[in-house]
Amino acid sequence: MADKYSLTNSATGDCVNLDLVSGTDGPSALDITALYKEKGLLAFDPGFVSTASCTSSITYIDGEKGILRYRGYPIEQLAAKSNFLEVAHLLLYGELPTATELVDFESIIMHHTMIRETMRTFFDGFHYNAHPMAIMIGVTGSMSAFYHDSLDIHNPRHREISAHRMIAKIPTIAAACYKHNVGEPFIYPRNDLDYCGNFLHMMFATPCEEYVPNKTAIEAMNLLFILHADHEQNASTSTVRLAGSSGANPFACIASGIASLWGPAHGGANEAVLKMLEEIGDVSNIPKYIAKAKDKNDPFRLMGFGHRVYRNFDPRATLIREMCHKVLAEISDKDNPLLQLAGELEEVALKDEYFIERKLYPNVDYYSGIIYRALNIPANMFTVMFSIARTVGWVAHWSEMISDPSQRIGRPRQIYVGAKQRDYVPIDKR
Ligand code: SDX
Questions:
Q1: Are residues 23 and 90 in the same domain?
Q2: Most buried residue among 28, 160, 354, 382 by CB atoms closer than 10 A?
Q3: DSSP conformation class of 194
Q4: Residue 312 pLDDT class (50, 70, 90 cuts)
C-alpha cells in the first residue's frame, strides 16, 4: 500500500488523497495527478522551487549536506581518480567502464571529433566579434541539417550515435568559435591527443609551429569538465528535457540547452564573476560592493554566490578553489590579484549576516573563471567551456527521458490573471 497524504479544504471539508512517491535518496514527493483529475485544482510553484519534474538515476544532490554524486559516485572521488571521458561513460551508460570499454569509448569519441567541412562556412556568417555562445547555439543546432542518418529518436542505436557525435564534436565547434573571434585559422582535431589535450590544441595551436598542451592545463580542464558535467534538473537540463519531450531531434535540444545556460543567473555567471571582480578592482572596494549586493534597490548581485539547491556549500567550488591555487602556482602568477581579490571577497561575504542568513556561498562559477583566465581562455568563452562539459549531462538526460516508456510531452499549466472575457471595440470607439 503506497503511503498517502490527505489534503482537506478547511472551509468545505472536501478531501483528496495523494500518493507519496519516494526514490532511493533525497526528499519524497506528492503525486498531484489526482488533484486536477478529481478536484480540477493545479499546484502552483513558480520557478519549480519545490517540484520534481521527473524521476532520474543520473545525478543526486543534497543541498543541505553539499553532496553531489554521479550515478552514486561522490564527486570528490571522481574528481580525484577519474577523467572526463570516463565520467562521460558513467553518466551516459550508468556504470564506470572496464579498461576495454574505456579504450573503445575514448576511440569512438576521439574518432568523431571532426565536423563537416561545409559547417565551417557557417562561422563566416558571424561577425568576427560575435559572442561565441551565439555561434555555439547556431552551429550546434545546424548539426541536425547534416546528420540525418541518426535522427530516429526511438532507435536506441541512433540515440547512442547522436550522443557520441555531440560529445565528440562540441569541443571542435567551441574551439572554432574562439578561432573565429581571434581571426586565426581553425585547427583540425588530433586523434593522437586525449579529449582535453585535443581541445587545448584546437584552441591554441597555429599552423606556424608545434603546440604541446601544458600537463597542468590538461589536468585542470579534466577537473573542470568533470565538475560541470551534470547537475540534475538545472535550468538548461530542464530546457533540454522539455524540448526533447516534443520529439525534437537531439542537436536542436542541445542547442536549446546552450541557449538557457547562457543566462547570467545560470552558466553565464562564470563570465559575470570575472567582470564583477574586474569592476571591484581592489580589496578596498569590497565593502561598497557587498553593500550593493544587499541593497534591494540595486540590481547588483554577487555573481558566483548563491544556489537554488546548495544551502550550505557547493562541493564543486571547494574542489575548483584548490585547483585554482595549483594552476596559478604552476602556470600563472602566484599572487594573481584576481585570485587574491576573490579570496578576500569570499571571506568578507561569508562573515556577513545577510549572506549567512540567506545561506549564500560560492558556487561552481565563482572560481572557475580565474582558472580559465590563467589558461589564457577569454571571459566570453567561459560559458562555452561550461557547455562543452554539460553536453554530457544534457545528452544523458535526453536519452534517459526518451527511453522512458512513460515519457510524454511536457506541458505546464498557469494561473490566469489577465482580463475577463470582453467584446471587440471598433478602432473609432477606443
Ligand atoms: C549555476 O541549478 C543548478 O544546478 C545550476 C548550476 C549547474 O551546475 O547547473 O549549479 C550552475 O547556475 C550556479 C549559479 C550561478 N549563478 C550565479 O552565481 C548568479 C548569482 N546567484 C543568484 O542569481 C542566485 O543565487 C541564484 C540564481 C543562483 C539562485 O536564485 P534563487 O534560488 O532563486 O534565490 P533567490 O533569488 O530567491 O534569492 C534568495 C535571497 C534573495 O534575497 P531576499 O529576497 O530573500 O531578501 O538571496 C538573495 C536574493 O536577493 N540572493 C543574493 C544572491 N543570490 C541570492 N543576493 C546577492 N547576491 C547573490 N548572488
A1: no
A2: 382
A3: -
A4: confident
Nearest protein CA to atom 34 of ligand 1, as residue = 308
- The preferred substitution site among 260, 301, 309, 359 for testing ligand 1, maximizing ligand atoms within 8 Å of CB, is 301
Evaluate if residue 79 carries a pLDDT over 90: yes
How far is ligand 1, taken at its centre, from the CA of residue 303, in Å? Answer: 8
Nearest residue to 329 (alpha-carbon basis) of 279, 384, 374 = 374
In a domain, 160, yes or no: yes
Ligand 1 site-directed mutation target among 232, 280, 360, most atoms within 8 Å of CB:
360
Asked whether residue 178 falls in the same domain as residue 34, the answer is no
Average pLDDT of the residues in 204-220: 97
In this structure, is the dihedral angle defined by the CA atoms of residues 417, 422, 424 and 429, taken in order, positive or negative? Answer: negative
Domain harbouring 16, CATH code: 2.20.28.60
| Same domain flag for 205 and 313 | yes
Query: Is residue 65 domain-resident?
Result: no
Residue 318 lies in a domain: yes
Tell me if 274 is assigned to some domain. yes
User: For residue 4, which phi and psi values (nearest 5 degrees)?
Assistant: -130, 155
User: What's 147's DSSP letter?
Assistant: -
The domain of 26 spans 5-52
15 Rama sector, left if φ>0, alpha if ψ -120 to 50, beta otherwise: beta
Q: What global pTM score does this model have?
A: 0.95
